[in-house]
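Lecture notes, unit on protein representations.

Consider one protein chain, 179 amino acids long.
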Amino acid sequence: MPTAVQTALSHLVLNVPRPVAGGPEVRFQLAAALPALHVGLAPPDQPAATDYSLAPLLRALSPERLVRLLAYVMLEYQVVVVSKDPELRLSACEMVQSLLSPLQWVQVYVPSVPDAWLELLSTPFPCLIGLSPAQARHLPAILPSRMALLQLDEGHLAEPRERPPPLPSREAGPLQAVV
């Protein structure tokens, strides 16, 4: 007899413990006919495991530009990733999120924007989105002041017009607390 979705979800929420970071995996079944699921969390000092590679980002960007891209994401700029390969777009977006660890991106995240959602491009909200080159043609000629555009296929990062403050140089020494 099939299990109702609400019964399976209720069991999951009420009876299955939440995994602890770095702790043992939690094993459970949603229904007798289904295979057991195993869920675990990486220790807090390690990034989460991912099926994607950092290689596409490292091939497309120098280390300095990759750090700048991460700074734009952390400062909640709009970041648009463009590639003709949808898997490459997804991989790059996932790895940007993974590199934020232990922080998490909680803003708009759409690694492959459907054509019907291209209106997302006109919102002023922070976002991490992926576009095909055909969709990228819908971007305004002059990008919004807080939008960075990463063109993976060309290995180019178009910097936003509103630049964040510069990072301290190595010669500046440790950061000083402002009181």
